[in-house]
Amino acid sequence: MSILNKHIMGSRSCFLVEDDEDDREIFTLALKKAEADFVCSTAKNGKEAIEKALSGDFVPGYIFVDLNMPLVSGRDCIRAFKKIERFKGVPIIAYTTSSFSKDIREMRDLGATHYLVKPTSFSALVHILTELFHEENLPFFLTSGVNAGH
Amino acid sequence: MSTSQNIPKGLPLFQNYVYSGFDKSVMEKLPMALYTCDTDGAITFYNPAAVKLWGRKPIVGAEKWNGAFKTYSVSGEPIERGQKLGDADTGSPKAPAPLELIIERPDGCVSLVMLQILNLYDAEGIILGTVNVLVDTTDDSCGNAVQEMLQKKAEENRKAFVTSEERYHKMIDEVQDYAILLIDRNGTILNWNRGAETIKGYRESEIVGKNFRIFYLETDRKEGLPDRLLEDASVNGRAGHEGWRVRKDGSTFWGSVVITALHDSNNDIIGFSKVTRDLTERKLAEDRLTSNAKAIEFRNKQLEEYAYVASHDLQEPLRKIQVFSEMLLDSIDDKDEVLRYINKIAASADRMTNLIKDVLKYSQVSNTEELFEVTHLNLVLQNVLDDFDLLIDQRKVKLHIGELPILMGVPIQLHQLFSNLLSNAIKFSNAVTAPEISITAHEPTAEDMEGCSPLSNGVPYTKIVFKDNGQGFEQEYADQVFKMFKRLDATQGTGIGLALCKKIAEGHKGCISVKSNPGDGAEFSIFLPLI
Questions:
Q1: pLDDT tens profile A5-47
Q2: Domains of chain B
Q3: Prediction pTM value
Q4: Neighbouring C-beta atoms of residue B193, cutoff 10 Å
Q5: Are A133 and A35 in contact (CB under 8 A)?
Q6: ipTM exceeding 0.90, yes/no
Q7: B470: which of B65, B136, B459, B510 is 20 to 30 A away, CA to CA?
Q8: How far is A97 from chain B (nearest CA, A)?
Q9: Nearest to A71 among B323, B488, B491 (CB)
Q10: Which chain B residues have a beta carbon less than 8 Å from that of A121?
Q11: Nearest C-alpha of chain A: how many angstroms from B414?
């Protein structure tokens, strides 16, 4: 919470909604490696994320949402974020293991900015995050396979 | 001729023309039978000689062409009353010869007569109708010879009819593959054939005189199906229907029925013929096909589910192993970090193993009927408790076990069901108080019946309740807990256990539901048919 308050308008901040403890750790480490001064706040599930978003006044630079979560799923979470006025213009990235075409289509329809498949390698995740923060006109669908090349 | 001056100009003078100007009083006095008809054939006048010959007075204006009680051709074939007897003799060379007929009086006397028909004109030459002259040519007073001939003819006709009917009856009677019967307008059965006996099981003596509704299911009778079919047949001439019908012994068969209305010569319905085929074999084959198609569809859906699972949940631990291995390599010199990553890799591998095992278990639950046997639920539960012996001891679980029923089930599946529910109750126990779990059987309430759709009114069900005093959860997530890979808590379990419970309950034609409140524990109810 203290992080949230310090960086209310920080474009160099991330909000990660992820139920898996290991994945939260992996993401935080990758983020630190990609952009050392990025700060990251996390929520353990969709329910907690929505509560945090509704009660706080922070505006993150990027929002990452895992799709497969208990209680409130990632899609419900994104749907709720889309209704929050101050999150307008904040890129929302669906972050998931699944590369199921149905999920990808659904996320595009919901208005997510990118669909990022969780890479099977730590360095690939670092690479994608770096790209994401520095390059414009990236495709909707992001995987390590497609983007590792450059 | 004195009348010739009244014949209109231009009209050829033939002896066969008759003027309307004839004095009827003259005709009345004529000794031969004579009557007139209008252009439509309605009788407009007849003289006393005609009355004598007919033995009756036809109704003027109503009866047509012929005033006799009964009329026959000279060969004895009956001629219907009101039928036109012949055309007028115009006197031309092509004109018809006088008709020979037999007429019968109401007293039974018959006469052989000659009928001469002449056109009747008015003063303008327009046809008004006909004058009909009947000359009695019978040689004895009551026409005995003619009568004899008539009787002989009638007898011949009757015999021919009986022979033809017998042959027909035989033909229908011998048909074995179709039930062919005659029913009257109200549906009363009038006759029966061998096919009907084979298909429906009644003998002729048992069924003739009963109403055909007896062949219909009670629900169809209540909905008025048999009467509706008769009505359809009355209106449209025939009515066809396929559906379950009842045999004498109460068993059912799939009947294909055609009911055809039968009419008399006046086109009034006198009854119906009903032809029924037993198409049970075909129906069952069709049903099997449909059910196979449904099963295939279901399997396909399951396959899709597995594909989703494979793309999702099974990949997660694998991906973690890959990521952590890389991170381990990156910090290979830091012993603490290395240990930490190795532990994480091992945990992910464990989880992968559990997932694969559970997916396998889930896919192996099949609903083959031969697996069902008489199952003592208390015995099944005892086996489960034996498995959990150590855990129950360690966690100091307090158990309350009620008397459970005996029913038809798959013991190994019910073992799995009880085992998953018990392990769930222990797993999500409250950190403060010792776990307390009760397992009891109850009669389902009316509310239960509504909440669980497969519960039919016909079969009695039992409700087996697993109640714990554990963590519980919010009721709004109750549906989610039974879904594949849905976990309310990210840390424990594979998310398959309760999905498996649901699959097992439904495979037993039952269902499962849960009531819970955070902190108040959870109450799982399994509904199973008592068969």
A1: 444 446 788 999 998 889 999 999 999 998 878 888 888 888 8
A2: 4-149 (3.30.450.20), 175-278 (3.30.450.20), 369-529 (3.30.565.10)
A3: 0.52
A4: 23
A5: yes
A6: no
A7: B510
A8: 6
A9: B488
A10: 322-323, 326
A11: 27
